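so my prof wants the structure for this chain in the tokens format not the other one, which i didnt know existed until like an hour ago. anyway here's the sequence
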Amino acid sequence: MAFQELFLVALIPVLKTLLISVVGLLLAIPRFNILGDAARHHFNNVVFYVFIPALVGSSLADTVTASTLVSLWFMPVNILLTFVIGSGLGWVLVKITRTPEQLHGLVMGSCAAGNLGNLLLIIIPAVCEESNSPFGDKLACSANGQGLVSLSMAIGSVYIWTYVYNIIRAYGNLSGRDITKASTISIDCSGKTLDMFMENYTEALMRSRRSSFEDCEAPDDDYAEVHEHNIVHEDDQHENVTVLTRIKVHVDAFSDKINLKMWMTPSTIATIVGLLVGVISPIRKLMIGDDAPLRVIDSSAGLLGEATVPAMTLIVGANLYNGLKKSGVGVWLIVGILVVRYVALPIVGIGVVKAAHRVGFVGSDSLYQFVLLIQYSLPPAMAIGTITQLFEVGESECSVIMLWTYGVAAIALTLWSTLFMWLVS
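here's what i got, hopefully its the right format
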């Protein structure tokens, strides 16, 4: 493909994203006030509970089978590496730039999570449709590319709503009001700390022991020996209960800290359902295909899923209104995020994918290698804007980061795509 053609292929999806963001910005200004604070909050819940699960589940069910899962086992590992390495580089960046603590999670999340679904859904089919594409037959390339992108989007969604979600939550310094809002997406925030729990438990236990001894008369010697034995036995039981209670409290505190319930988000459940439908042949025949008896379920889910990309992009654009008025994001922080996403991560990705190919983890499929490589060079995931909106922390700053990263992506993504195609050809 000529450089000009490739440039247009990569530029068009990014321009679409920017144009829809502008629409969201216009809807948020006071003159229209269609996407105000309350509207964005409820809109986020619709995206979280309905649109994202529908998109992930329907895409996986349509394109992923048992054979594809076996051959694509390295993709979850590759995506996890992009998240871990990106968040590590983001942590270094916030220390160097002395970013405010409440924005640490946003910066680390922006460096970690790439747009593994929306852009790839447009870029990969567009590349396959080119007459001189390096990936062979158009129809076969489009079908295989759809499966690769669907799996990438599903895995990325799981990582975002577990790994990145908890990073932003940990640094968000949630107030009571934020916790109340966040509880609408099944977050268990009891507000009881470990010290308070242990203090109340110990005080109640000692009070119970004192009352039981004060109410008793002095026993005779024989009875005293038996009673003393029983007390020792009861003390042992209390000690065992105390140890078990302490263990349980520590487990509960750890679970609350990392929010294990977010491992079973709607998108995660949709991923499991979509994989089951796609992999189990009898269920697949019932729901997938033009002659499937229950095809209306799959088509309805796909129809809902189509609203995900524009809805999330509108929210990011609406958040941009506050960011343009006042933002805590400095110039050097923006430059640092751009360097991480468009310089450091792609270079690391080339080394990882080439090493995996050399040891036989990836295989010789050039399209598969291209998707693995491009996962390292994408702008931040739109879902980060949804998470910041849910917790009301860094919404405007997130929009400014999105504006710059997607603007630069028009050039950076094109250049890296050209290099990646040359490497896998």
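also thought this was worth mentioning. Residues 174-205, 211-217 have pLDDT under 50 and may be disordered.
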